[in-house]
Design a protein that fits this description.
The protein is of the alpha/beta class. The chain has one domain: Mur ligase, C-terminal domain (Protein-Tyrosine Phosphatase, Chain A), CATH 3.90.190. The protein has seven helices and six strands; from the N terminus they run E-H-E-H-H-E-H-E-H-H-E-H-E. The longest helix has 13 residues.
Length: 151
Amino acid sequence: GGAFTLIDESYNANPLSMKAGFVSLGARSVEPGGRRVVVLTDMLELGEHSRALHKGLAPAIVAAGLDVVHTAGAQMRLLHEALPTALRGQWRENAAELAAEAAALIQPGDVVMVKGSNGSKASLVAVALANLGVTEQGNNPSNSGAPRATR
């Protein structure tokens, strides 16, 4: 349906790197009609503070000026519920369910960052987004449908 920019951060996540990613995404310019979209999966190995650390990401997202937040995972549900209603995108139980809806998560002109712990399978969403508009032969049917991926 149109080009978008994909930032693949699907291999590592902790509260500090999440917040840095939000600031970076918030500073990026978007094309007319585009949005700053973040897709997040659970941060793992945070111990007894996991719930508070996930929920505590909401103020950083608001401060960064992001437009839509899609989330997957039990811990990210806490963030989803803590966000202002206008920022809430999709929440699914796991990354595979969110990846299955990849085309519905974005619009032409969006800048999309996928971030999450490797163990929470954030890469499934990044791969699904990267493959939008790619034919079975691996060729993009038109340049307008190709994501511009950065890492």
